[in-house]
Amino acid sequence: MKELMQVKGLLFRHSDTKRWLKKPEVFALGPIDLTVNRGETIAIIGENRAGKSLLAKMLVGAVAADEGEIYLSNVSYNAAKRKSTKSYNSSNDIRMIFQHSSEAMNPGITVGMILDEPLRLNTRLSEKERRSRIEETLRKVGLLRDHVYFYRHMLSDGQQQRVALARALVLQPKILVADEPFAALDPSIRSQTVNQLLTLQKELGLSFIFISHNLGIVRHIADKVIVMENGQIVESGKTETIFRWPQHAMTKKLIMAYQSLVPQQKLN
């Protein structure tokens, strides 16, 4: 596989000193090292406050690291400054899909306007070219061309999630970071969305960094699994290896909780 992203020594420290007469709370994440290959899905799992979402935001540049380097498409970025060492726009190669798609959609503008904004800000495409790209992207995520005229309240939960996916795809990135993208969907829509992502991955050669508490979906779609606890990667490996032969106590705890919900499945 072709390597798309390499993360080296990513480190974040946060100290909460605002609590009166209490010791400051310090949360440290890292150092994190990981590699993402073309067409690969990496799942990040762990309990709440393990640092999963924070790591995702650091990878896309939404939160600055204190130390570390990110190499994306062979270009090096100082993760602490979120600034490339070359003249290059990293945000076009890696995009994020958030958990609550409705909260990320402005109710006062149409789907077409939502998708047009990143194209206007990040490309030199003409209005006609942007419209063509938008319509093509809507089709790829299973929506209609006429959905460009729709507002948020006119869309179902599943359609809103597809719009969120379209917004992430419209700049034709190489890596998508998805933070619990299925949590708010009912099971039938969730299944459709998962299958849609797998189809897009096959067609476009996309890589996914996927954060989820749903280990059933993780086992279904992930090539590799990273287990986090208290801001640290405590175990990582191929998906089936992690599920069949977990080594770390946290990994065993997560797998046992998952297995208790699906007792008909055997790990060995």
TrEMBL record:
Residues 12-255 form the ABC transporter domain. It is a peripheral membrane protein. GO terms for molecular function: ATP binding; ATP hydrolysis activity. Transmembrane segments: none annotated. InterPro entries: AAA+_ATPase, ABC_transp_ATP-bind, ABC_transporter-like_ATP-bd, P-loop_NTPase. The lineage of its organism: Bacteria, Pseudomonadati, Pseudomonadota, Gammaproteobacteria, Alteromonadales. Keywords: ATP-binding, Cell inner membrane, Cell membrane, Membrane, Nucleotide-binding, Transport. It comes from Salinimonas sediminis. This is ATP-binding cassette domain-containing protein. Gene3D superfamilies: P-loop containing nucleotide triphosphate hydrolases. It is found in: Cell inner membrane. One of its GO terms (cellular component) is plasma membrane.
